[in-house]
Structures are given as structure tokens and as C-alpha cells.
């Protein structure tokens, strides 16, 4: 069973640019969550999608956005990049639906973004 | 928003030592407490704890939850160099629509095991 796949694995951007990251969840998983990991702040929740709908959003500025497609694949976009956006962006999938517990999250290996 | 605090933040031991990692949490609609191990990139699941006093065990790792005192510990016995990693504790809580997919993580404990 394939795991959560994230692309690209590494990327370098400059301030002001925008970036799009992609996440393919485990087959059958309909919930996709995104997290930002930095040395100072640890893992912080960005947002969660289920059946193409954003159900939950963390405390990040509007420059951070995402979407989910009908095949459950998800993308997140960061516009007008700032130096502080340099981080490891992790995607996680789960079976969760609104009727069930959130349960275990299965993480991808992340996309390492460096903003210069 | 609930806060999760881990201690110590870093720990250096030698192979064969036993370590205890701590995690305290706040309780607002608590649902479960999870432990993850992060070696290089992807955090990998270790344990999910929902009931107080019931130890979960996997090989040399074990974990227990105390819902009265609001903490959990992760024990690793006979440590090996392969145990070197960041150990993350996370709280899952039930707040209806505002909790979907959201785990609140502690800052992690960096464990280094020397040969």
C-alpha cells in the first residue's frame, strides 16, 4: 500500500514568489491535513480538507491556501513568500469522516521550502 | 487552544540506557494522545492513548496516559543508536468542526543515542 506522497521534495524560492505543493494521500483516505514544521514553532496545523471541502483552518495568514480534488489529492499554495515561510511542509492523510474520530494521521515525507 | 508541552527538549544517552520522555497537555474535549517518531522527514506513528492507566507496548517502547494528572510518558528501554530521533507528542481533541484533522503537537524531544 503506497504511503502519502508529496512533491516536490525540495524547492528554493525568492521572496515575493509563490509556490504550490502537492500531496497524494493513501488510497482510500479522504481527509488531507497540512502542517508547517519549523525549528522554533514545531508542527503547526495549516488546514484540513475532506471531500473537496476545507473543514478546518489554522492560524495562518490568507497567503496560505489549499484545495482538494475529487480524487482526494490536495495542493497548498503560498503566495508572496516571506523568509519566515522557510519550513518543512508536511501533508497527512486519514480515513476520518465527520462521523468518526480523527484517528491516526499518516504523514508524507514533506516538502522542504527555502525562501531566499 | 490546548497546549502540549514536552520535556526534556533534548536528551543524550548511551546505548543500553533507559529513557523516559514526558508530555503534558491541557484538557478541553480531549479525545486521544498520540506519540510519533520523526527520524528524517515523515513522523511515524507509535501509540495512540485514550484510556488512563493502560500501558501500550511495542517492543522496547511503551507509553501510558494519566488523564487525572494530564500527562503521558514514553519509555524506551535498552536504547539503540537507531532510536535517535525527534519524539513528538500530540493531542487530538473533539471540538466538532474546528478539530477535523488537527493535532496539537508539542515541540518534541530530540533524543540522541551514542554507541
Provide an overview of this structure:
- The complex is a heterodimer of chains A (116) and B (115).
- By secondary structure, chain A is mainly β.
- Chain A has no helices and eleven strands.
- Chain A has strands spanning 5-7, 10-13, 19-24, 31-38, 42-50, 53-57, 64-68, 74-78, 87-94, 106-107, 111-115.
- In chain A, the strands form two sheets. In chain A, strands 2, 4, 5, 6, 9, 10 and 11 form a seven-stranded mixed beta sheet that branches. A four-stranded antiparallel beta sheet of chain A has the order 1-3-8-7, with no helix packed on it.
- With 115 residues, chain B is an all-beta fold.
- The chains are: A mainly beta (116), B mainly beta (115).
Keywords:
heterodimer, A: 116 residues, seven-stranded mixed beta sheet, four-stranded antiparallel beta sheet, 11 strands, 0% helix, globular, B: mainly beta, six-stranded mixed beta sheet
Sequence of secondary-structure elements of chain B: EEEEEEEEEEE
Helix content of chain A: under 10%
Q: Spans of chain B with pLDDT under 50 lasting ≥5 residues?
A: none
The chain-level structural class of chain A is: mainly beta
DSSP, total strands of chain B: 11
Strand-residue proportion of chain A: over 45%
- Largest pleated sheet of chain B: 6 strands, mixed
Q: What is the share of helical residues of chain B? A: under 10%
- Give Rg of chain B in angstroms: 14 Å
Count every helix of chain A, treating DSSP H or I runs of 4 or more residues as helices.
0
What's the tally of helices of chain B?
Answer: 0
Q: Which value, in Å, is the CA radius of gyration of chain A?
A: 13 Å
Poorly predicted tracts of residues of chain A: none
Give the CA-based shape of chain B: globular
Amino acid at each position: 500500500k503506497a504511503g502519502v506522497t508529496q512533491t516536490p521534495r525540495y524547492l528554493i524560492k525568492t521572496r515575493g514568489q509563490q509556490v504550490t505543493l502537492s500531496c497524494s494521500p493513501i488510497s482510500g483516505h479522504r481527509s488531507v491535513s497540512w502542517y508547517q514544521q519549523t525549528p522554533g514553532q514545531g508542527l503547526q496545523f495549516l488546514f484540513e480538507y475532506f471531500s473537496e471541502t476545507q473543514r478546518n483552518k489554522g492560524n495562518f495568514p490568507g497567503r496560505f491556501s489549499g484545495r482538494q480534488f475529487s480524487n482526494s489529492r490536495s495542493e497548498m499554495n503560498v503566495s508572496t513568500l516571506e523568509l519566515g515561510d522557510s519550513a518543512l511542509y508536511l501533508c497527512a492523510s486519514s480515513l476520518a469522516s465527520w462521523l468518526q474520530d480523527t484517528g491516526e494521521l499518516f504523514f508524507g515525507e514533506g516538502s522542504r521550502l527555502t525562501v531566499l | 487552544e490546548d497546549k502540549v508541552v514536552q520535556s526534556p527538549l533534548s536528551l543524550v544517552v548511551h546505548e543500553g540506557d533507559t529513557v523516559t520522555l514526558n508530555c503534558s497537555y491541557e484538557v478541553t474535549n480531549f479525545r486521544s494522545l498520540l506519540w510519533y517518531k520523526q527520524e528524517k522527514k515523515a513522523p511515524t506513528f507509535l501509540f495512540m492513548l485514550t484510556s488512563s492507566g493502560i500501558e501500550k507496548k511495542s517492543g522496547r517502547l511503551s507509553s501510558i496516559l494519566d488523564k487525572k494528572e494530564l500527562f503521558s510518558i514514553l519509555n524506551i528501554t535498552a536504547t539503540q543508536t537507531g532510536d535517535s530521533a525527534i519524539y513528538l507528542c500530540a493531542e487530538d481533541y473533539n471540538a466538532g468542526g474546528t478539530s477535523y484533522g488537527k493535532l496539537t503537537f508539542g515541540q518534541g524531544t530530540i533524543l540522541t543515542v551514542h554507541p
